[in-house]
Amino acid sequence: MKYFALFFLIITSQFTFAQEPSKTKFKKNSRDLTSDVNVFLGSSGDHGQLSPAASYPFSMLSIGPQTYPNLHAGYEHSAKQFLGFTHNRFEGVGCTGSGGNLMIKPYLGNDPAKGELIKSKEQASPGYYSVGFENKMTAEMVVYKNQGMHRYRMPQGEKGFAIDLGYAFNGAFVAEEHQVQNNAITGMIASKTTCGAGVYRIYYLIEFSKPVKFQSAGDHKFNAVPNAADTELEIKVSFSSTSIDYAKRTLSKLSFDQLKEESKRGWNSHLNRIVVKGDKEREKLFYSLLYRTIQSPYQISEIDGTYKAIDGSTQKAEGIKYNGWAIWDNYRTQLPLLSIAYPERYQDIAGSIANLYTYGKKDYATKFEPSPTVRTEHAVVVVLDAIRKGYKINTGKIIDSLIKEVDHLDYGAPDKALESSYDAWALSEILSIMGKKDAADKYKQKALEYKNYWNKDFKDITKSDVDRMQARKLYQGTIWQYRWFVPFDVKGLTELIGGEKTYLEQLDYFFKNDLYNHANEPDLQVPLMYNTTPQAWKSQKLMHNYAVDTVVQYYFNDNSRGIDPFVDRIYKNTDKAYIRTMDDDAGAMSAWFVLTAAGISPACVGWPVYYLNVPLFETVTFNWENGKSLNIKVQNFSDKNLYIKEVSLNGKKLDRNWITQKEIMDGGTLDITATDQPQENKNAWISDINRKAVQ
Predict the structure, then answer these.
(1) Across the strands, what pairs with 567?
(2) Transmembrane segments in this chain: where (predicted)?
(3) Could you read off the pLDDT of 170-228 as tens digits, one per residue?
């Protein structure tokens, strides 16, 4: 891939922005889609764990409000009391969140403790956040790449800014170093990653636009006191994963309004990769969710390729390096979506995942992470998936580490056995691609052992605990939900169940009795599993229903089965967007909707195949930097026409309900004719451990 530095004529400094894939130019004929994004979606209660913080695609800097009481992302939409503003958050992830570093609280008077902040109004859009308080103070934030700015308007009189360098979500602070010079503070902050598994470090610069006096206020705390006559003041902030020097270089001379305009331009460029046309309210929901899918992973390398690896060493790379992973959560939705919509980024994203093996990858996190991160299980599956989609991965460099990881997988619990078998299969396929037949056969046989585990724990569905959360030491799921998790060999799974007839009967029972749990990922692929049979129409209906219709859900993401079910739409464009307890999980759940809305969903991560459903819009267009586009058009579009009658690609009829990555990326026109009558699926694609090619 070819990359270059992006310059704007309005830049007056000699600084060059951190590298970014190719052009992010907002084309003249593009739509302004930022106005369709509701950044408050999922920001109340336990309905997504999202924040309206000012952010930028794939940037680790996000400046946003910290409210009381604290939630995962630091913000509760219904709360009126503000604690201040923090500068990063890994949104929608489990445990109790990650981030919340570098707290800044504006206050009036001479005592920060008495300077209460009560919200009176707020508004936000991609890249921008503003709030007004009852004390007549207003605060605005903007983020563009890894730099941002606060802008405050305050009454005349005594005032100040309480700065807490030791603040982090849920007491995750570890250490900090800082230096005060003139109107600026520079330093390093170390905090625990999600679930406290590892430690990340960020380097920063904060600089006030007017003279301030810094007063020590205790451990890791300062008060910055400006002139009492000052009524408008700005604070510049920049982040780096590498060093304080790079954080300084990141800061440009752009004004607040210029940063806001460039951030909007960048967001529009990213959002216009997928253009949908249909119901206006549904369009707004679509773009609000697409916005969530491109928050992470985070770009951590500098313009010259310098970055910090996960062992703490300083490295130099070609292209861009990313970090901030939630692979167990989003490898089957968000990462496949990025591979289609942002291929120029995905080459480096996939390469960054592979690069973890070079520097001591852990399932969760190391003690030297360059950004907040969550977990990396199934990375070997993502590596295989990238290879088969045509992305270049140097497997020779990491194969020993891949083997070592798979050799030490956990088979101790029923769900772990199935998940580990998936990774063993992925390794066997990579070895086969490399021409290492004997080793490939070894790990294929290891993967086939899933049958023994499945027969032992998942075959008998008459036992009393099969619908009980965490029975038999399962992780966040039931026997019913995990028994379908053999994505790499559904053909073999069908045979274990007793053949296609019994397979269909048990799938029908699963959904008829509301055993499916869309609040979490363990059975997220199950609505697609009718696609392997002549009854693919059932999957088409389920995908539509779970995306935009009222459904019944008894299971929640707090490992409970509710006495009373959730009965509503799962995806709503409101602050209480998702099922109670449902996390967005770093774009996993929002990407599920985006893919479903586009009519394509991964059949098996590790194979470049996507099942089709009727899109949620009359037209969906993917636009790419190479000038190609894929126009998906629905004939006979209606929310009553849930089933696919006919499919053609570039005028040629496809006698199948699936499409490949190559067919998507080659572009053209995909015509889907919809109907209200179920249609028999005649040429099903089914994963098979003995399969050698897509067809």
Answers:
(1) 552
(2) none
(3) 889 999 999 999 999 999 999 999 989 999 999 999 999 999 999 999 999 999 999 99
Could you identify the residue written with the tokens 């700015």? Answer: 149
Residue 277 pairs in a beta bridge with: 619
SS3 12: coil
User: d(Cα 450, Cα 488) in Å, to the nearest integer?
Assistant: 11
Instruction: Point out which residues pair with 56 in neighbouring strands.
Output: none
Strand partners, 544: none
- Specify the 3-state DSSP secondary structure of 509: helix
The predicted structure's pLDDT at residue 2? 29
pLDDT tens profile 613-668 = 999 999 999 999 999 999 999 999 999 999 999 999 999 999 999 999 999 999 99
Rounded to whole angstroms, what are the CA distances from 47 to 51, 205, 316, 571, 664? 11, 34, 40, 10, 33
CATH node for 275-675: 3.30.2080.10
Residue 131 backbone phi and psi in degrees, to 5: -150, 140
Classify 34-272 by CATH class.
mainly beta
Instruction: Say how far residue 688 (Cα) sits from the centre of its chain.
Output: 29
Here the tokens at position 659 are 């499409």
34-272 and 275-675: identical CATH topology: no
Backbone angles phi and psi of 609, in degrees to 5: -130, 140
Distances in Å between the Cα of 81 and the Cα atoms of 65, 70, 97, 116 are 10, 11, 20, 8
Q: Nearest to residue 687, comparing CAs of 469, 384, 283, 400? A: 384
Query: Which tokens in the block code for residue 190?
Result: 């170390």
Residues paired with residue 81 on neighbouring β-strands, in sequence order: 118
In 3D, which of 84, 577, 31, 88 has the Cα closest to residue 324? 88
339's tokens: 């591979």
The C-alpha angle 458, 462, 464, rounded to 5 degrees, equals 95
Is 515 within 8 Å of 451 (Cβ atoms)?
Answer: no
Quick check: bond before 297 cis, omega within 30? yes
Domain-wise residue ranges, the chain: 34-272, 275-675
Q: How far is CA 567 from CA 282, 315, 585, 593, in A?
A: 20, 51, 22, 18
